[in-house]
Amino acid sequence: MKQRREIVFIYDVRDSNPNGDPDDENRPRMDENDYNIVTDLRLKRTIRDYWLTRETENNKVLIRRVVKSDEGENKGNVLSMKELIKQELEIGVVKGDTRELIRKSLPEKFIDVRSFGVVGTVKDANVALTGPVQFSIARSMNKPNINSFTISSTIASEEGKGQGSIGEFHVLDYSLIKFHGIACEHNAKEVGFTEDDLKYVYDGLWNGTKRINTRSKTNHLPRLLLSVASKENDFQIGDLDKGFVLENELNLKGSEDARVNISGFLERIKKFSDQIDFIEIKEDRGLTFTDGKESSNSLKDFLSDFALEDI
Asked: Is 146 helix (H, G, I), strand (E, B) or coil?
């Protein structure tokens, strides 16, 4: 991948908990201003979980939950990063420079390492690879409400108890969430990240979000995936996500009511239009976009001055 990308990804959740906080009884993460927070680690987990269903020889997923199957006191424990790397690369069997083996072999074999990087230590060999694709922490564009429910189980939580357990279940009524990301061409060169790999990331973002189907994370839908490709190395517009602002963020109940003002985004890309090669886009037409004058459920209607490519 030779061209830097600036990525905006918007999705929404309804009656769901997009990223629970284990330090707060797994309630949805919120900031001091009552906006919903979703970490980049949660987004990468979504992508990895989707990739796990589509693994090939050179597009495997390293960071995943693997339980030890050997006999003994460690049976049933989850493999550590060190153990995953040793298992996958057969460290201990292969002779030579362990550090160089890890740096070369992990990106070649694992799509999540090529995309997001990895930090690992095996046999006193410390390896840190910075992946080209990184996302900032996301915040919701609206202020959602947290709804809490008491739930009970018909199965006892511990052996010897004669009745089920009672707990609480926390969800957001509706949250429209906005991520900003960068795909850096310099880091791509270091790990061999290609344009095809980038498309794999896009696929994981879009379809991985749609595929989430646990009890706490139902009703996830991608709304917009936008990527701006720069003509020159090192050029970056910056703050593209800040150009997408809800006009009616209070008491928003669903995407059908959302009006996203994109005047700030259009101003930024027009200002630097001579530095933009093309814009990649995928949308579900579930949001209404406006520049303050015209409105449309397709962002493409405002981008006629740019070369567009479908994701």
From this structure: strand
Residue 16, strand partner residues: 172
Read off the pLDDT of each residue in 17-21 and give the average, rounded to a whole number: 94
> Do the beta carbons of residue 228 and residue 87 sit within 8 Å?
no
CA dist 227 and 269 (Å) reads 12
Cβ-contact 19, 29 below 8 angstroms: yes
Share of the chain above pLDDT 70, in %: 90
State how far the alpha carbon of 274 is from the alpha carbons of 235, 243, 277, 300, in Å: 11, 19, 8, 19
Could you give the CA distance from residue 156 to residue 166 in angstroms, rounded to a whole number? 10
Task: Give the span between the Cα atoms of 296 and 302, in whole angstroms.
Answer: 9
What's the pTM value of the predicted model, to 2 decimals?
Answer: 0.90
Radius of gyration of the chain (CA): 22
Task: Give kind and range of the element (H or E) at residue 143.
Answer: none
Percentage of residues in the chain having pLDDT higher than 90: 69
Residues 60, 188, 273, 248, CA torsion sign? positive
Instruction: Using the Cα atoms of residue 133, residue 33, residue 251 and residue 24 in order, give the sign of their dihedral.
Output: positive
Largest Cα–Cα distance of the chain, in whole Å?
A: 71
In the numeric block, the tokens 């074999």 are attached to 109
The β-bridge partners of 309 are 280
Cα–Cα distance, 132 to 149 (Å, whole number): 41
